[in-house]
Amino acid sequence: xxxxxxxxxxxxxxxxxxxxxxxxxxxxxxxxxxxxxxxxxxxxxxxxxxxxxxxxxxxxxxxxxxxxxxxxxxxxxxxxxxxxxxxxxxxxxxxxxxxxxxxxxxxxxxxxxxxxxxxxxxxxxxxxxxxxxxxxxxxxxxxxxxxxxxxxxxxxxxxxxxxxxxxxxxxxxxxxxxxxxxxxxxxxxxxxxxxxxxxxxxxxxxxxxxxxxxxxxxxxxxxxxxxxxxxxxxxxxxxxxxxxxxxxxxxxx
Length: 253
Ligand SMILES: *[C@@H]1O[C@H](CO)[C@@H](O)[C@H](O)[C@H]1NC(C)=O
Ligand SMILES: *[C@@H]1O[C@H](CO)[C@@H](O)[C@H](O)[C@H]1NC(C)=O
Ligand SMILES: *[C@@H]1O[C@H](CO)[C@@H](O)[C@H](O)[C@H]1NC(C)=O
Description:
The protein is of the alpha+beta class and about 250 residues long. It has one domain. The chain is built from five helices and 14 strands. An eight-stranded antiparallel β-barrel has the order 1-4-5-6-7-10-11-12. It has a two-stranded antiparallel ribbon with strand order 2-3. The protein has a two-stranded antiparallel sheet with strand order 13-14. Strand 4 and strand 5 form a beta hairpin. The longest helix has 20 residues. The two termini are about 35 Å apart. It binds 2-acetamido-2-deoxy-beta-D-glucopyranose (3 copies). The site of one 2-acetamido-2-deoxy-beta-D-glucopyranose has 2 residues, from loops. The site of one 2-acetamido-2-deoxy-beta-D-glucopyranose has 6 residues, from loops.
């Protein structure tokens, strides 16, 4: 009995001290401490091209063993000048990743598939901006280990300058992800053409988003022009409230 406990403890110590930096160790869905943001269909609906706001801010990355990644982030940035004016950003991206021999991890998105929803309540007067998004992400290194406090697998990513990203914890293995292929293969590579609706073979992005929101009755979003759509004040106050709850939850943790 005592012996097996020692075996478990030493196994934990070994796992803890030997951080792993292989594709095999990366495999799975990872989520930040709030444990509310996950990649997959709960964050981005590719049929309606709809980003779905999680209840709390956080970030999530998923990796397959064969070189595909997916990213879901919901971040709220405070405004130093006016704390009541936070900026909220939701981002979805997926594509391929590559681990170099020096340990650098590069995420290369499928450019036509990325989406961003940017909300600046004090600047945009309640009109959130929905747009295409593509950003190659380079992490100088990463390490997977067992977090002795949470008793969970932990993924530590380091930004290009070496600064650590907030730690991520394993949520699903195998990962919860959308199909690892381009989801909008008919879309033109030129985002501006799509946004202005000049392509008559495909409905404009804004139309698709508006339809998705109306279908779900999440808001009574009203299309105002080609570029955007209006979120009601109710939606905004709700968002700001959730942002507040999220920040408190983070601080209290
Ligand atoms: C990563 O990129 C390097 C250089 O481009 C390439 O040699 C290697 O095969 C790639 N690895 C994977 C897993 O795709
Ligand atoms: C690691 O290798 C990649 C590609 O091989 C390169 O772009 C990057 O600068 C290297 N990083 C470091 C820290 O040397
Ligand atoms: C990718 O992002 C760049 C910079 O924002 C933009 O110029 C380009 O059109 C985007 N590409 C696609 C396919 O969306």
